Task: structure prediction
Amino acid sequence: HIKWKYKSVPPRQACVLLPLCHVAGRASVLFTVRSSQLRNHAGEVSFPGGKRDPTDPSLAHAALRETEEEIGVTAVRLLGKLTPLPDKSLTTEVHPFVGWDVPGDLDVRSLILNHSEVEYAFTMALEELLDPAARSYERFREMTHVLAPYWRGPMEERIWG
Result:
């Protein structure tokens, strides 16, 4: 377990949902691309999520609320929580949750996107994301000794991971 040194103590709390779904009968991951109008992380590939509000009873609730606000998905079954990670600025602790979307095949065109936060959404099959040949590596934040994996989305989006 890595101990992160945050610039603000305690760090702000945020949550994301890694939404799993079926597309054309294949297990897939749903991604969003952040609106180009946003101040932070504009145009970046992301998962639905955001800061925890004081009215959120839990981190999981915050992830589900943000998912509904950003892409209109409400029928999510939470499968679990992954290890929290810092954001790029080391001021926010991001809590990732994994959830399964509505039963049946997902058509991303049917999502109700909040365009002030989300430019568009796309999916990639788990089979493709797990294929070593589909993965590339690049130095992470100019650190010569750390290589971070990334994938290319259907429109050449860079998916860090």
